[in-house]
Amino acid sequence: MNTFTLSRLRQWALASLALLLLAACRKETSTPTAPPSTDLVLTPAGYMPRSSVHYIGPGYHLSVEKGRLQKMESRTGRMIEDFGPVTITPAHHSREVQGWIAYAFWNNTGTAITSFTTDWVVPSTPANQGSQTLFLFNGMQDGTTRTSYIIQPVLQWGPSAAGGGKFWAVTNWYVSSSQAFFGSLVTVSPGASLQGVMKETAVSGSNYSYNSSFTGYPSASALQVNNVPQAFWAAETLESYGVTSPGTMYPPDADIAMNSIQILQGAANASISWTPVQAVSGSAQRAVVVSDASPGGEVDIYFR
Fold first, then answer.
1. Which residue of 122, 149, 221, 245 is most buried, as measured by CB atoms within 10 A?
2. Residue 10 phi/psi, 5° resolution?
3. Residue 90 exposed, middle or buried by CB count within 10 Å (0-12, 13-18, 19+)
């Protein structure tokens, strides 16, 4: 083999090595494609991406401004975060909600609700403390479609996007099927008395403002929402996820009494007619209307 040929071979080898090294460098510094998100968290509207769930801490509130839902600093009125446009398509009909096992609803077609309160007692702890999550609440919705929002003071057992674990805790939520907002989670003990309260705090034309809270519990758990559509659909609800053994994964109590119910329209007590709904006909979990009165109404939700 002559000198020229050897020289060409060396050049070819060096060029090939350089190309291999360049390719290797490119491979090491390239950005991998992110896999589809599976980071789902649980809310009282079911599972949704973590990025769609937001904590609203003390000193802040939610408000719809120019058709967009925003987090506002309460002291200054400064916009902190924009959550996008709000699409509202109210409809006056009942619905089956993801996870709603037993509930009673009242569809208000009259004067707007100005106050909705319910008393109940924190149940005993479930015998089988698995991965289940239970939500118990009274709540008000601005419609019954997937874009509708519900404001609700919620008692929970188990984990959710707000926190929690194998204990009872309370906080307040404002949720739709696509995004959720919550206050600080506060631990409560079995046997503790609760009063969930939703009050209209202002109204301007078709825009309503509401506050959701638990009487006697830290204001950090409360939630204020401003300039939203009228909440006209009221409910008393048991919602659950991950319950594979109903006989042991619900509280051992036979039922929970959602009592001392009072709904006001202006300053007058509402004339209520609760409609019970059961997710699975014939199952032990059911809602029983004891009284339509206001004040003094009662809906019992049975675990077994």
1. 149
2. -60, -45
3. middle
Residue 10 lies in a domain: no
Confidence at residue 15, expressed as pLDDT on a 0 to 100 scale: 41
Query: Which tokens is 205 given?
Result: 């034309």
* H-only helix segments in 159-300: 246-249
Q: pLDDT of 208-252, one tens digit each?
A: 999 999 999 999 999 999 999 999 999 999 999 999 999 999 999
Q: Is residue 45 part of a domain?
A: no
pLDDT in tens, 38-73: 699 999 999 999 999 999 999 999 999 999 999 999
Say if 265 falls within a structural domain. yes
In the predicted structure, residue 255 carries a pLDDT above the cut 90: yes
Q: Are 219 and 74 in contact (CB under 8 A)?
A: no
**How many structural domains compose the chain?**
1
**Which runs of E-coded beta strand occur in 77-232?**
79-85, 100-107, 113-121, 133-141, 150-157, 168-175, 180-182, 186-188, 193-204, 207-214, 223-228
Cα→Cα distances 181→43, 48, 75, 175, 251, Å: 9, 12, 20, 6, 27
List Cβ neighbours of 71 (8 Å cut-off, separation of 6 or more): 54, 56, 60, 61, 62, 79, 80, 81, 82, 83
Domain of residue 168 covers 89-302
- Residue 175 falls within a domain, yes or no? yes
Once rounded to an integer, what is the mean pLDDT over residues 77-102? 75
Q: Which residue has the tokens 């003390």?
A: 58
